[in-house]
Design brief:
The structure is a single chain. Strands 1, 2, 3, 4, 5 and 6 form a six-stranded antiparallel beta sheet that branches. The N terminus is likely disordered. This protein starts with a strand and ends in a 13-residue tail after the last helix. The chain has 502 residues and is of the alpha+beta class. It folds into two domains: 112 residues, Outer membrane efflux proteins (OEP) (Single Sheet); 365 residues, Outer membrane efflux proteins (OEP) (Up-down Bundle). 57% of the residues lie in helices and 12% in strands.
């Protein structure tokens, strides 16, 4: 590395008038020379090395496979915007969702991360302006008699400098600093999109946990009603046994069926407690002080239009974050390329200096220094070339991540559209299975009471009916969860217009 220093330093003496270019330099020449320097600087500052950023293309289908020729022309298109969870018309869910923005700690951490990234922009922008320092010194000094060329003029002297102001300014000729600012701005915008993605994910997680818990409430209600029915069946079987009609085996089988169902109900309570505790964490409350009253599911999910595939590029915050990080990586290429050019810095200082306080504030004590410094790396064993190649590779990596994020977003939408379509059909089929199982159970009970069949047939019918009913509840729960995941997959109510300009 070599440097070229072109200073203009002067400590005026009493026989010369103060002047920036020396005592005999006319002011007109000063103005012309520095005017030309400023004009050249302004022209050069407009130069920026590095590629101009354009968003790389990503393959976007015309329509979703699961929607066919679906078109965006329905009033319900706004259903998933803003506070999207309100489309479920569940006041308890609304109340829980409103607490996330206030109390969730992960969301607070993401918001703090955005503020950190935003402050990094201010730090980067500060380099676009001169750095000015100021200070003063007052020192006493003693010279060594053994110093070379020592004279008898004196060994002790004082040196006063009040005030001494200095300034330095790096001319951003090649856009290095501007690329750093652009990089910080892109990262802040990506972090803002990350914050939106965390917000969306937390709200979706709460809604999913809520519907899973409600599904377990529905199962618990079903099991409790079944236990009541089984208790009545056991009583009837016991009476038949006492009357000599039923065997002791029938009583034992009825007792077994009853206790097994009770155990299933207790197991459901364990699962429900886990979801309730998860919701407590999401709303920022200790699990030991949080509870949600049981409320079984009783309604299917609302219709949720997915929009067009091209909407995902604007509505998914994770896609927006990946796109902003592409621009950040592109700015990194400009920073790497700027290293091939010299760094030019203007430095200057001014102040008063004297060996005596009595003459410190007199005209001849004034001093100044001004000049540019140019530094250019002549040999670095290929370091700059490697840094440039690394920046290009990071940009290529960001493109691949962006396109992969887009592909995964289409997959998530298609997955949940397919889940909603198939589960809706399965729900109708399962309703038929539940009806058939209940009819079979009724026939089995009548046959047993009439002495036509044994109690094993009743137990088999009871198990099938309970299993089909629980499956129906599980399908409804999965449909509601899939609807939440679809809303999350299409970005909820977010869009890129919410990214701050920073």
């Amino acid at each position: 590395m070599t440097s070229v220093i072109l200073p203009s330093n002067r400590k005026p003496s009493p026989d010369k008038a103060p002047g920036l270019l020396g005592g005999k330099c006319p002011h007109r020449g000063l103005r012309v020379s520095y005017g030309l320097l400023c004009a050249a600087t302004l022209w050069l500052v407009g130069c920026m090395v590095g590629p101009k950023y354009t968003r790389p293309a990503a393959e976007v289908p015309a329509t979703y496979k699961e929607t066919g020729d679906w078109k965006t022309a329905q009033p319900s298109d706004d259903a998933a915007r803003g506070e999207w969870w309100k489309i479920y018309q569940d006041p308890q869910l609304d109340a829980l969702e409103s607490r996330i923005d206030v109390s969730n700690q992960n969301l607070k951490a993401a918001e703090a991360q955005f503020r950190i990234a935003r402050d990094q922009i201010r730090i980067a922008r500060a380099s676009l302006y001169p750095n000015v320092t100021g200070g003063g010194t007052a020192t006493g000094n003693r010279l060594s008699k053994n110093k070379p060329y020592y004279t008898d003029g004196g060994m002790n002297y004082a040196d006063y400098q009040i005030p001494v102001a200095g300034a330095s300014y790096e001319l951003d000729l090649w856009g290095r600093i501007r690329h750093i600012v652009e990089q910080a701005r892109s990262e802040a915008q990506a972090t803002a999109a990350d914050l939106a993605n965390v917000n969306l994910s937390l709200h979706a997680e709460l809604a999913t946990d809520y519907f899973e818990m409600r599904g377990l409430d529905a199962q618990k209600r079903l099991l409790d009603s079944t236990v009541t029915a089984y208790e009545q069946a056991l009583t009837l079987t016991q009476q038949r046994h006492d009357g000599g009609i039923a065997s002791e085996l029938d009583v034992a089988q009825a007792q077994t069926q009853l206790e097994t169902t009770r155990a299933q109900g207790q197991d459901v309570e364990v699962q429900r407690s886990a979801y309730e505790h998860a919701i407590a964490v999401l709303v920022g409350q200790p699990a030991s002080t949080f509870s949600v009253a049981p409320l079984p599911l009783d309604a299917p999910p609302p219709a949720i239009p997915p929009g067009l595939p091209s909407d995902l590029l604007e509505r998914r915050p994770d896609i927006a974050a990946a796109e902003r990080r592409m621009q950040e990586a592109n700015a990194g290429i400009g920073i790497a390329r700027a290293a091939y050019f010299p760094t030019i810095t203007l430095t200057g200082s001014a102040g008063l200096e004297s060996g005596s306080l009595g003459t410190l504030f007199q005209g001849p004590s004034f001093l100044w220094s001004l000049g540019p410094t140019a530094v250019e790396t002549l040999f670095d064993a290929g370091r700059r070339h490697a840094v440039s190649d690394q920046a290009k590779a990071e940009y290529d990596q960001s493109i691949a991540k962006y396109r992969e994020t887009v592909l995964e977003s289409f997959q998530e939408v298609e997955d949940n559209l397919a889940a909603l379509r198939i589960l809706e059909a399965e729900s109708k089929t399962q309703d038929g299975a539940v009806a058939a199982a209940n009819h079979t159970l009724a026939l089995s009970n009548n046959r047993y009471k009439g002495g036509v069949s044994n109690y094993l047939e009743v137990i088999t019918a009871q198990s099938a009916a309970l299993s089909d009913q629980r499956t129906a509840v599980d399908i409804l729960t999965r449909r509601l969860s899939a609807s939440v995941l679809l809303i999350k997959a299409i970005g909820g109510g977010w869009n890129t217009s919410r990214i701050p300009a920073v």
